[in-house]
Amino acid sequence: MAVWSTVNLSALPEDKRLDAEYFQPIYIQAEREMSGLPHKLLQAIVSDIRYGLYLPPDYTEDGLVFVRGLNLCDNGIDGELLRVPVKPGDVSEHYRLRSGDILISRSGNVGDVGIVDDDLSGATFGSYILRIATKDYDPIALYLFLKSRHGRLQISRLQTGGVQGNINIPNLRRLIVPLIPPNLTEKLNQQYEKHCSARRRSQSEYAEAEALLVSALGLDRLDLTLRLFCERTYKDASAAGRLDAEYHNPRAQNLIAALSRDRRKIADVAKLALRRFRPVSGVEFQYIEIGDVGSSGTAESSPVMGEEAPSRAQWVVRPGDVITTTVRPIRRLSAIVAEDQAGFICSSGFAVLKPTDIEPELLLVYLRLPLVCELLDLHTTASMYPAISTSDLMRIPVSLPDAPTRQKIVAAVRESFAARREANRLLDGAKAMVEEAVLSAKPTNN
Question: What is the Cα–Cα distance from 275 to 318, expressed in whole angstroms?
């Protein structure tokens, strides 16, 4: 069915855009609804908007915390926050985050929004992010509006570019922001604080599960000193089938020995699920990409039409499956497929594991242990996109704790997931409050 809009010349934006995407009826309707209500343009309520920094990609354990575009997702700022080898004093205050700053992804997953809390104050941010500092407008209220339907529609409309969408600052300044009554602002802050409390509870429960597993496996008592050099015999190198120093370093060998005590491999506790997906033109499916996996051990998804299916959309997943990235496994991107994600499709960048002699929650925590991810990384090949083969993945040693500890780990992960669902519910409720306020506000002639 054809869809079109009739637009007057006087309705063209300042940059005289004429592309059909900009004038989709859904965007025009949203603009009419916003323009007829008490509002201000974004440029009137911000003290600063700026692009992030291009910093060296060689992330380290020390240095300045660096927020990347992929850290912005539906739930705000999530995922592993890396550090760059830069001293705080070497970065201008203009590029240092403050509590209440709002971050918008300007490329990639365009329009994902996050708000900076006290823990991230002083960090810096990447070039794929726009930072907004507000004035005379509650930052939490603005954050929730930008995540609501009318906020996301406006941001989506401002995208430019063909192959990869982008948002520039001049266009963003024209974004229409509703005037939210003080009593509602107070309610939004209370709701958002409940959301943050639930998220912290989720993170705490997962951290407890991880600590239990690390202690049960004795990984907290290993000698993991990284030696500058080591010696190995030809027999050792021949048996391993490799000569790289990283693998033969005592740190890696001590880790492998500790995880091999049960003489079991991942293939002994889980099967590799190879359910091939065949897209059908005109039929929509839910697609899980690598960027959809967050630090909580859960995965988001997005709808895709069959005729637009990317070539990497290959595997069908079922509830209880554990998906783990084979590309850059050091990033700890693994997740459990939820009950409501049955039949979803995931990228070929994941290995889909069906647990057979291990609880999905325990397998998830095991695969996300930093030391296990370090071991997975030792088996990657290539430099631009280092990846581990599924055959090597299935040969990774696995060691399991006793039954009581397994039960405690599973219970903690489930509690973590329940708290995360509660956090999502509270955030959705806050966005709904903003949306209701926008639609119920009395029109103005100003």
Answer: 10
DSSP-derived pairing of the beta strands 102-105 and 129-134: antiparallel
Q: Closest Cα partner for 400 from 440, 445, 365?
A: 365
- Cα torsion through 321, 213, 329, 388, rounded to 10: -80
The model's pLDDT over 167-178, given as tens digits with 9 standing for 90+, comes to 889 889 989 999
Q: What is the pTM of this model?
A: 0.86
H helix intervals, 58-148: 139-147
| Residues 122 and 265 both lie in one domain | no
Asked if 262 and 396 sit in the same domain, the reply is: yes
Domain count, the chain: 2
* 298 & 152 share domain: no
Range of 389's domain? 205-408
Q: How many CB atoms lie within 10 A of CB 285?
A: 18
Q: What CATH number does residue 66 fall under?
A: 3.90.220.20
Are both 257 and 387 inside the same structural domain? yes
- What's the rounded Cα separation, in Å, for the pair 71 and 79? 5
